[in-house]
């Protein structure tokens, strides 16, 4: 009963955040799943991998509905999507395979550091000065490779990295958020495949899993996220997202401190 309620709750929150803040629901899904999985028979040495792999799998659902909502508002730059996707696919798949063989402690510390970075970025609302245009295919694909690799290590759709990059290249903020939602799909696909391949045939795997993707958690998250993602998009065009981001940043700091305390 606990997991029956907890997994959809994760999905509902992730869907809203994906559309509202452009930060990717994985920032919330990963720590929530890492807290839930120990009660569901997931081996301790695999908890972070399962949280990351399942988060990326759920983003496949969230990104589709979020992208459709943004595209209806003409806020997706498909030319940027085409150029960045090859690098995204290579970087995410490679990074995911590395992460599946990395120690759980390393992945947790990496995630905590990333949460600290995201929190500082949101509180300061810092954006690099927009002084140049988008680079060509090679440059954009290269940046995509870096975004994909980092995203695979933290289980997110890449919005915290791709939105500042596009803003730096003179893409309007709402369009950067919309395009980031679309970019989240190839990140999620490549990341999910890497966590399935990397976790295939491991000993002591719980039932209802494929590689490092927990199917029951994925079903619960997906059942709610596809409903709330369009709601997040509507809210992003109606609410003062800068103030919301600062409030969310405080919440992320609390999660960061809690995870750090757990490690210590």
UniProtKB/TrEMBL annotation:
GO terms for cellular component: plasma membrane. Its main location: membrane. It is a multi-pass membrane protein. It comes from the Bacteria. Keywords: Cell membrane, Membrane, Transmembrane, Transmembrane helix. The chain crosses the membrane at residues 12-37, 49-68, 80-99, 105-124, 136-156, 176-197, 209-227, 247-263. Pfam families: TauE (PF01925). It is found in: Cell membrane; Membrane. Belongs to the 4-toluene sulfonate uptake permease (TSUP) (TC 2.A.102) family. PANTHER family: MEMBRANE TRANSPORTER PROTEIN HI_0806-RELATED. This is Probable membrane transporter protein. It comes from Candidatus Desulfovibrio trichonymphae. The lineage of its organism: Bacteria, Pseudomonadati, Thermodesulfobacteriota, Desulfovibrionia, Desulfovibrionales.
């Amino acid at each position: 009963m606990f997991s029956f309620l907890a997994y959809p709750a994760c999905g509902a929150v992730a869907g809203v955040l994906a559309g509202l803040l452009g930060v990717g629901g994985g920032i919330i899904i990963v720590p929530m799943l890492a807290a839930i999985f120990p009660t569901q028979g997931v081996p301790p040495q695999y908890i972070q991998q399962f949280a990351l792999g399942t988060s990326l799998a759920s983003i496949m659902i969230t990104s589709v509905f979020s992208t459709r909502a943004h595209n209806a508002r003409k806020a997706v730059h498909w030319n940027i999507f085409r150029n960045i996707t090859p690098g995204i696919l290579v970087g995410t798949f490679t990074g995911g395979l590395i992460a599946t063989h990395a120690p759980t402690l390393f992945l947790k510390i990496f995630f905590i550091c990333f949460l600290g970075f995201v929190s500082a970025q949101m509180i300061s609302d810092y954006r690099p000065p927009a002084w140049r245009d988008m680079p060509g295919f090679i440059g954009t694909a290269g940046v995509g490779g870096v975004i994909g690799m980092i995203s695979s290590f933290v289980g997110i759709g890449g919005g915290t990295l791709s939105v500042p990059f596009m803003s730096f290249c003179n893409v309007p903020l709402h369009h950067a958020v919309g395009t980031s939602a679309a970019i989240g799909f190839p990140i999620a696909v490549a990341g999910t495949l890497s966590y399935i391949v990397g976790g295939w045939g491991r000993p002591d795997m719980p039932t209802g899993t494929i590689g490092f993707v927990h199917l029951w958690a994925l079903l619960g998250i997906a059942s709610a996220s596809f409903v709330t993602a369009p709601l997040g998009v509507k809210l992003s065009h109606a609410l003062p997202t800068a103030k919301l981001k600062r409030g969310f940043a405080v919440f992320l700091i609390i999660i960061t401190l809690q995870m750090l305390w757990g490690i210590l």
